[in-house]
């Protein structure tokens, strides 16, 4: 970003501050879809999305037209199974049971994945399981802070286990300070947003796109996809 661009942003936004972090979060919930041009597809912006001890202030889920909607929340164990099959492309039944830590009498854990058409058998085989769900979603996670950008960066980094892009959002002056440590953001693959109370959002640093997602992706998608299903049904 040029010195002129930096000065322009400061002049336009310096008079607009946030009294509470909650105000910043509400603005982001309203403005993120436009910032990331998520129109034309199903979209949900959710607050305080929890995955274990990790709680993202905001997660935006964009579902593309052909993506299968998950109608019920997945358990962690079910998310682990789907994640494993997604990465390998297939799994045999014995491996599936071992991963699920189930027995024949406790097969409900993955039976629901079959019932919801998320897993199925390969053609002409009941020994090989293949994914029926193509997780065709875009996920953007944001950690919002009024200050303490280093804490926000650490939290946003953890969201890359499920998000395609992860950002720290700060009021403009704090964001400009954080941007001086661009090497830390680049190393983490995390982007940086500046915001003000007028509704302006500037992408100061673009996040690197994450692809090596863990089971947390299926877990988060199921939570938000379920909400989309309820809204649209």
Would you report the number of β strands? 9
Helix content: 40-55%
Radius of gyration: 20 Å
- Tally of distinct domains: 2
Q: What is the distance, rounded to the nearest whole angstrom, between the alpha carbons of the first and last residues?
A: 44 Å
Which structural class fits the helix and strand makeup? alpha+beta
Question: Strand order across the biggest sheet?
Answer: 1-2-6-7-8-9
Q: What is the CATH architecture annotation of the largest domain?
A: 3-Layer(aba) Sandwich
Oligomer: single chain
Structure description:
The protein has helices at about 5-15, 20-35, 75-90, 95-100, 110-115, 150-160, 170-180, 180-190, 215-230, and strands at about 40-50, 55-65, 90, 120, 130, 135-145, 165-170, 190-195, 200-205. The chain has about 230 residues and is an alpha+beta fold. The protein has two domains: about 5-65 and about 135-205, 3-Layer(aba) Sandwich (Trna Endonuclease, Chain: A, domain 1), CATH 3.40.1350; about 75-135 and about 215-230, Arc Repressor Mutant, subunit A, CATH 1.10.10. The longest helix has 18 residues, at about 215-230. It is elongated, with a radius of gyration of 20 Å.
